[in-house]
Amino acid sequence: MELRASERQFELTFDDMRLPAEALVGDENAGLLQLFAGLNPERIMTAAFAIGMARYALARAVEYARERTVWRQPIGAHQAIAHPLAQSHIELELARLMMQKAAYLYDSGDDAAAGEAANMAKYAAGEACVKAVDQSVHTLGGNGLTREFGLASLITAARVSRIAPVSREMILNYVSHQTLGLPKSY
Ligand SMILES: Cc1cc2nc3c(=O)[nH]c(=O)nc-3n(C[C@H](O)[C@H](O)[C@H](O)COP(=O)(O)OP(=O)(O)OC[C@H]3O[C@@H](n4cnc5c(N)ncnc54)[C@H](O)[C@@H]3O)c2cc1C
Description:
This protein has helices at residues 31-37, 39-67, 79-107, 111-139, 153-163, 168-179; strands at residues 69-70, 73-74. By secondary structure, it is mainly alpha-helical. The protein has one domain (39-179): Butyryl-CoA Dehydrogenase, subunit A, domain 3. The protein has a two-stranded antiparallel sheet. The longest helix is centred in the N-terminal third of the chain and has 29 residues, at 39-67. It starts with 30 loop residues before the first helix and ends in a 7-residue tail after the last helix. The structure holds flavin-adenine dinucleotide.
């Protein structure tokens, strides 16, 4: 992965592997259900990760837009710079509300409602994050791509929140089928 992260990514495969009975995690014959139990918190966490990353990038861009002066004006005085940043701020706040709703539903034990909200939160956060990071990098001009300013590596990291742990298309499929009751394409 072209990501700066403390953990490494790798693929695990198990062929003809036998384990002793005491290695069983959770209940017998309920592996998939137990795996599924982790999906909602994983989506909520990914939404939080995306929102946090985007808020960081946006704060750096706002700081830069206040200080960087081209000719006589700080660039943040131009609406072409300011409005997309304001728009991203709004989108991140909206995604954050959805993420908090999903976390609340999950904590209150309403798994079905939490599932829908967690998917929506992950979708909204991923979209808002990709847009906010892109706009933040752009606000810094050439500096946006330098290592010193620390935003360029977020371009790849932001894309992760659109792809993993479930892609935005699969979330749109989920909402199409589960929420809107539309027929499945697969
Ligand atoms: C950094 C990172 C960490 C990860 N960590 C883990 C992990 O810890 N554990 C784990 O199990 N997995 C992990 N993943 C895998 C991740 O869950 C998958 O990458 C993700 O679910 C997308 O699946 P895929 O890569 O197989 O893409 P594919 O399913 O091959 O999809 C490719 C593209 O086609 C689109 N697509 C697929 N089907 C449809 C459809 N029916 N309709 C419309 N569009 C469709 C997708 O949205 C996507 O854009 C990780 C991935 C990344 C990037």
